[in-house]
Amino acid sequence: MKTLAKDSLLTKLVKTLDIDVEKWVSSAVSVLPETLRVTTSRSDIEWTKQELRIMGGKPIPWMPNESAWQMPFLRGKPPTDYATRMMTILHDSGRITRQEAASMLPVEILAIDDETVVLDMCAAPGSKTTQIAEKLPPHGFVIANEPVSSRANMLISNRARLALHNVLINQQDGRYIGRMPEPGFDAVVADVPCSGSATTRKNVKVWQKWRPLDGRSLFHLQLSIAERGARGIIPGGKMVYSTCSVDPIENEAVVAELLRKCPWMELVEIDSEILPSLIMHEGLSSWKIIDDDGEVVKIGNELPKLPGLKIAHLPPSLRQLLDEDVTSENEDEIAEQLKLTKRLYHMDNDTGGFYVALLRHKKDATPEGKARIYIPKRKLNRDSGWEPRVLEVRTGGRHAVMPADEVEITEVVNQYQLDTEGLFWWKRGRRLNLTPYSVYQRLYHPKCPNKDGNLWQHDTFHPLKIIHAGMPCFVNNKGSWRTRQEAIPAIENILGDVLVEIDHDTVIALLNDEAILKQDLLPEEIKDFSGPLILSSMIQGHKALISAWSGNWISLMIGTTEKDIIRAKLQLPFEHELEEE
Asked: What is the pLDDT of residue 580?
């Protein structure tokens, strides 16, 4: 593999980037270690960390508050059956999220504070979306965008796995993503599709498949997505542009062209204190162009006839020689700004490679106080008495996301004695979902202007295409509203006095499918109750909530994953081990 790597076109590119090629190749052919994020909102997070330590895991030092860990084994290769099962159930139950360490950078660099609406433009499979959601304040939410249905399903799965009520899933092409009502998005993450030239440690096919043409072919797509994001950000709002590529045409060249097309945007220095001890290199202010044989192309007074090569792919120093529409002063300033972007190489931190740029919408550049997308390119003649029309939108349908019916909300609130202050209820099919109230306030209820100055009607997500909103927490089963076990973490802090306390022996009996009559378990005042229950037992220092059903006898309504979590906490064999015995 090392010989193949040394002779590859990718290594020829790296030789032009002022990188120690020997060190880079040695690291780039090695397999990544297993890395993950811990779901910080879970009540049993200390137990999760304890299990990671037992398996030899250590916190990643540059990630805050022990929120990310590196395990002492290769990616996907736990050394024992116990570790294999434990890693699986921790991930499947949403207590951890397997994620390559380098890909955690964009969200950390964004430094979310009091943002309400964050857009993740290219969100699937969802690791960055969930990372954003965990960092948002209580009133904040993230719109996770993905145009491809199969990949959007990954977002839906990850949102449910982590029980996140502040994630909305939108299905549109990132280049043409719909507007939200004014003033716009508070922050944007544009982790764009790329050639993956920095992913060799997890995808060995890159060594053979990567071609210099790849970056040139992706440039326009990447720029279009980034530009759409930049036009939707409020003044003062931030955007992260990132790729898992080492190719400057996909990285610095895109950012440079973005600054030319969107002069209200500026690059921001990335605070090194956010990621202490992480080694990063400053972005390139100049780079070489290579042909499809990996040879450096000389740039003269004309653009070389290289497939897909555009003037915009050139570094600022060469751009000004061939483009009469740019000035040397402006190009010199862009070249200097590019140094504020950051590159991450494999060998420096035992990660994959990555590129990140932090940009901001300059406040004083847009005195209107709203995103540039809302400022008409032509002046509207308000003096003539023109008034915007309200445009109607067709809504509804079996799978549409709509505000829930007040009668159903009242039923569920009374049944579970919920405290839903600051939350809003939605219905999709037979399920009731919860989101922050700000989703209704900022996104759904206001009218949204179109490019002609007219207004889309209020009480619709249009022109966004939201296919899922928040966390589905309750489902109507034959007229009875029951909780979903995967939603328990989303509602455990708003439940009233409805929990049925049980001891460890009862938990074990239920795990073993022993018959327990409801009259022997339920309190006197509800001993004849039939329907959904939430059981509670103090295990490993925290209150574990377990969905159950009361018929003639009590039965658990949880899957094998959650059963094995409880078994592990009680130091019992996993379910499959009992079956083998």
From this structure: 60
- The residue type found at 422 is G
Q: For residues 215 and 227, give the distance between their C-alpha atoms in angstroms, rounded to a whole number.
A: 18
pLDDT tens for 270-283 read: 988 889 999 999 99
Distance CA 25, CA 346 (A): 9
- 573 φ, ψ (degrees, to nearest 5): -65, 150
Whether 237 contacts 187, CB under 8 Å: yes
Cβ-based neighbour number of residue 328 at 10 Å? 12
Low-confidence ranges of the chain (pLDDT < 70): 1, 378-385, 577-581
Parallel/antiparallel/unpaired status of strands 117-120 and 141-145: parallel
353-362 burial by CB neighbour count: b if 16+ within 10 A, else e?
bbbbbbbbbe
User: Which amino acids are annotated catalytic?
Assistant: 244
3-state SS, 121-178, equals CCCCCCHHHHHHHHHCCCCCEEEEECCCHHHHHHHHHHHHHCCCCCEEEECCCHHHCC
Sheet strands (E) in 177-285 = 185-191, 233-243, 265-267, 281-282
What residues have CB less than 8 Å from 12, skipping those under 6 apart? 290, 294, 295
CA pair distance 306, 328, nearest whole angstrom: 25
Q: What is the pLDDT of residue 581?
A: 53
Q: Which three-class secondary structure state does DSSP give residue 425?
A: strand
Count CB-CB contacts under 10 A for residue 390.
Answer: 12
The answer for 417, left when phi > 0, alpha when psi is -120 to 50, beta otherwise, is left
Compute the distance between CA of residue 347 and CA of residue 349 in angstroms, rounded to an integer: 6
Q: For residue 88, give the nearest of 557, 575, 578, 510 by alpha carbon.
A: 575
- The alpha carbons of the chain give a radius of gyration, in whole angstroms, of 27
Among candidate residues 535, 537, 541, 542, the one with its CA nearest the CA of residue 483: 535
Residue 555 pairs in a beta bridge with: 549
Report how far residue 533's alpha carbon sits from residue 132's, in angstroms, rounded to the nearest whole number.
32
What lies within 8 Å, CB to CB, of 539 at 6+ separation is 504, 507, 566, 569, 570
- What is the model's pLDDT at position 315? 95
User: Packing angle between helix 252-261 and helix 212-231, nearest 10 degrees?
Assistant: 40
- Report CA torsion sign: 270, 119, 349, 42: positive
Give the residue from 30, 239, 7, 5 showing the smallest Cα distance to 117: 239
Tokens 């209580």, residue? 138
